[in-house]
Write a structure and sequence with these properties.
Layout: H1 21-36, H2 45-57, E1 63-64, E2 71-75, E3 84-90, H3 118-137, E4 145-150, H4 159-165, E5 172-185, E6 189-191, E7 194-195, E8 199-208, E9 212-213, H5 223-241, E10 249-257, E11 263-264, E12 267-276, H6 279-299, E13 303-312, E14 316-317, H7 319-333, E15 338-340, H8 350-353, E16 359-367, H9 387-405
Parallel strand pairs: 3-4, 3-5, 5-16, 6-15
Antiparallel strand pairs: 1-2, 2-4, 6-16, 7-14, 8-12, 8-13, 9-11, 10-12
Length: 407
C-alpha cells in the first residue's frame, strides 16, 4: 500500500503535528545548507549559530551548551511539576569525503560529510520546535517541550555525556529521537521495543618484543606472528567464552607492524571495535577482552598494552515511549507507515540519555520508494529523500501533542 508522502491521512486531525507548506520548503533549504557545511564533533560552531538564530527568530530562548557547540531550547513554559518531553538531535558530521556529484548541495568542506543523516535529524528537530512554538503562541501547546541539539555523537563516548552533565535532562521525564535508515522507504518509520542498537567500544592494542633478524625468529619474539595470532584468535576465543546470544563481536580495523622484510619489529599495533547486543554482556566485555588478549600475547612471548575505550551502551527503547511514537505515527500516516525493525550492531550515544530517563528512537525512512540502489550510512554517497523531513517533523510534533494531552 502506498500513499503520496505529502498527503495527510484521510480523517486525521490536521492540527496534530501538521507541517505548513512554507515551513517545509524552508526546512529543506536549511538541511541543504547544513549538508554543504558539515562540522566535526565539538566543532559545530556554524551549525549551532544557525540553529540559535532561527530559534530566536521564532521567539524562543535557546541556550548554547558550555562547550560552545550544541544547544537546548524549551518550547512553552515548564510548570516545574510535570516532567517535559525532550526531542533530541545530533548535529555533527563525519571525517569522510562527500562523493556525490549529482546534487547542488554536496559538501563544500574537504573530507567532511553529513554521511550519517545528522543534518536531517537536526532539521527535523528544528522543524518540530518551530511548529510547536507556533502552537504555543496560539495557546494550543498543552505542555512544555525541550529541544536538545547535541554535538559530537560520532566521538566516543559521545557528546550526550557532556550534554547530560550540562543539565539538558533537568525537568525531563522522557526523550525521543530518530535516526535515518536507508533501508526504510521515506514516509515510513521502523520501531522496536527493547534494544534497537548495540553497545560499541573502541580497542587499541600495542604488542612489544626485543626485535631481531627474520633468519632467527626462535631467538626473539616473532612479533608479526604474535600480532597475527591476536588478530585471528582473540575474536574466536571471545566467541566461545561469551554467550552467543549476547552478540559480542570484536572486529579489527587497523593492524600495523614492521618496516623491512628481513627485520622482526619491536612494536606492533591493532585497533578495532567491540560491539555487543546485550547490555549485561557489554558491562562484562572489558574483562573478557583483556583476558583473551593477554593469553594469546603471552603464548607468543609478546608484551601487551591494552587501551579499552568505553563507548556507548545499547539504545533500549522503553515500551511506553515507543508506544507513544507508534501512536503518533499511526495518527499522522496510518498503521501502514510503521514497520518492525531489527536490532543493529551500530552504536548511538542516545543510549546515555536512557540511563537517566525512559525514551525511544525510531528509524526514519529516507530511501526513495522504488529506488533499488543502496546508499548506506557512513558512505560518501549517502543521501536522503528529503520528503522524510516532513514525516519526521510531524512524528515529533504529534508525539509532543499527544504526550501533553495525556496528563
Amino acid at each position: 500500500m502506498s500513499r503520496d508522502l505529502e498527503t495527510d491521512v484521510p480523517g486525521e486531525t490536521p492540527l496534530l503535528g501538521a507541517l505548513p507548506e512554507p515551513l517545509g520548503a524552508e526546512l529543506i533549504a536549511f538541511r541543504r545548507d547544513l549538508h554543504m557545511h558539515p562540522e566535526l564533533g565539538n566543532q559545530e560552531f556554524r551549525t549551532t549559530a544557525a540553529l540559535k538564530t532561527r530559534l530566536e527568530e521564532a521567539g524562543l530562548s535557546p541556550r548554547v551548551l558550555p562547550g560552545g557547540t550544541g544547544l537546548m531550547c524549551d518550547v512553552g513554559t515548564w510548570d516545574g511539576v510535570r516532567p517535559m518531553l525532550a526531542i533530541r538531535a545530533d548535529i555533527d558530521a563525519l571525517p569522510i569525503p562527500d562523493t556525490k556529484t549529482d546534487v547542488p548541495y554536496r559538501s563544500t568542506v574537504p573530507d567532511r560529510a553529513h554521511a550519517c543523516g545528522h543534518d536531517v535529524h537536526t532539521t527535523v528537530a528544528l522543524g518540530a520546535g518551530l511548529v510547536l512554538a507556533e502552537l504555543d503562541r496560539q495557546g494550543k501547546l498543552p505542555h512544555a517541550v525541550r529541544l536538545i541539539f547535541q554535538p559530537a555523537e560520532e566521538v566516543l563516548p559521545g557528546g550526550a555525556v557532556d550534554a547530560i552533565e550540562a543539565g539538558v535532562l533537568d525537568g525531563v521525564g522522557k526523550i525521543i529521537a530518530v535516526h535515518c535508515d536507508p533501508r526504510v522507504d521515506a514516509g515510513r518509520i521502523g520501531l522496536r521495543t527493547g534494544p534497537i542498537t548495540s553497545a560499541c567500544d573502541r580497542l587499541e592494542v600495542s604488542l612489544d618484543g626485543p626485535g631481531g633478524h627474520t633468519a632467527r625468529p626462535h631467538l626473539t619474539t616473532d612479533l608479526v606472528t604474535a600480532v597475527a595470532r591476536v588478530a585471528a584468535d582473540v575474536p574466536a576465543l571471545l566467541a566461545r567464552r561469551v554467550d552467543a546470544r549476547s552478540g559480542l563481536v570484536l572486529t579489527w580495523g587497523r593492524i600495523e607492524a614492521g618496516h623491512a622484510p628481513n627485520v622482526i619489529p619491536q612494536h606492533a599495533e591493532l585497533g578495532g571495535t567491540v560491539r555487543c547486543l546485550d547490555i549485561q554482556a557489554w558491562r562484562e566485555a572489558p574483562d573478557q577482552v583483556y583476558a583473551a588478549i593477554d593469553e594469546v600475547a603471552t603464548l607468543h612471548r609478546a608484551k601487551s598494552q591494552i587501551t579499552y575505550i568505553r563507548g556507548v551502551p545499547p539504545v533500549v527503547n522503553d515500551a511506553g515511549v515507543a508506544g507513544l511514537l507508534h501512536e503518533a505515527m499511526a495518527v499522522r500516516r496510518g498503521e501502514y507507515a510503521i514497520e518492525d525493525t531489527e536490532q543493529s550492531l551500530g552504536g548511538e550515544d542516545f543510549s546515555w540519555y536512557l540511563e537517566h530517563v525512559p525514551g525511544a528512537m525510531a528509524r526514519l525512512g529516507v530511501r526513495r520508494p522504488g529506488d533499488p540502489s543502496r546508499h548506506d550510512l557512513h558512505r560518501g554517497d549517502f543521501d536522503v529523500d528529503e520528503r522524510a523531513i516532513r514525516v519526521g517533523v510531524e512524528l515529533f510534533t504529534a508525539a509532543a501533542l499527544m504526550d501533553g494531552n495525556q496528563g
